[in-house]
Amino acid sequence: MFSFAAILVLGFFLGMRHATDPDHVVAITTIVTRQHGIAKAGAIGALWGFGHTFTIFVVGTIIILFQVTISPRIGLSMELAVAAMLILLGVLNLAGTLRWLQERFTPSPQVSRNVLNERSAGTQSYLSAVPSKPESVEPKFRLDRILHTVGLYNVFRPLAIGIVHGLAGSAAVALLVMTTIRDPWWAITYLVLFGIGTIAGMMIITAVIAIPFAFTARRFSGWNRGMAVASGLLSLGFGLFLSYQIGFVDGLFSSHPQWTPR
After folding, report:
1. Are 80 and 253 in contact (CB under 8 A)?
2. What's the pLDDT tens digit per position in 4-15?
3. Which of 60, 117, 162, 173 is least surrounded by Cβ atoms within 10 Å, i.e. has the fewest?
4. Which strand (E) or helix (H) includes residue 262?
């Protein structure tokens, strides 16, 4: 039991380390450079982690319970989907499409403030008629403020990116777990803790990345725009590099693909 507990704890910390993989950091950077709040960036990181964990849990559970064999071509195709996502993010970022979508589906600060003021006024009138504990109101509005200003588009985007990124790691993680933990239910528990660690790690990473943008948003707006363009170029370049590595070096586009789960 002690060895199993040690393995499960190790899974959590390996999940945190997994969040620092270059393709994950590059993808999330294209999103965080458009955010000027540390709390919102952390929420976006958590959403990415949830999407990533969802895919790893679903695909990994199927592989573990049904002993599914993943061929090299399927494994490389999953990784190629991540490269395609990075290329798409880079192109959309450079073309200004991401900024347009964010502005289109994210409430402006003024609109958000007006809506929150109206809600606050309505809540105050309600509280004057119905006694309630005042300390329970403030945390609610803090969470409401964060989620409302993030916007629907910024909720869906990291979830979708996390789900796609989970494809690249799900098969590899599941296959590696099967060689270490023979009991399938313990192996699935490992996947869950691995995913929780990934969520925690990505929240920390996104918050750290957002710190300089939060403090320079007003004084150095030109620098922020330059960093957003640089993140788009980095995403595009890294996606092309991964595509070449997967397609030609690892042989996905050849008759003898070679794939090593990692």
Report:
1. no
2. 678 778 888 989
3. 117
4. none
How does DSSP classify residue 261? -
The tokens of 61 are what?
């559970």
Q: How far, rounded to the nearest angstrom, does the alpha carbon of residue 58 sit from its chain's CA centroid?
A: 17
pLDDT tens column, 92-149: 878 765 565 556 655 554 444 554 455 455 545 444 544 544 444 444 444 445 445 5
Tell me the C-alpha distance between 109 and 131, whole Å. Answer: 31
Residue for token digits 């679903």? Answer: 58
Q: How many CB atoms neighbour CB 62 within 10 A?
A: 14
d(CA 88, CA 94): 10
Q: Which among 33, 34, 24, 35 has a CA at the least distance from the CA of 146? A: 35
Residues with Cβ < 8 Å from 80, sequence gap 6 or more? 242, 243, 246, 247, 252
Which one-letter amino acid corresponds to residue 183?
D
Residue-level pLDDT at 92: 82
With left for phi above 0 and alpha for psi between -120 and 50, is residue 155 left, alpha or beta?
Answer: alpha
pLDDT in tens, 179-204: 778 888 888 989 999 999 999 999 99
Question: In a 10 Å sphere around its CB, with 0-12 CB exposed, 13-18 middle and 19+ buried, how is residue 196 labelled?
Answer: middle
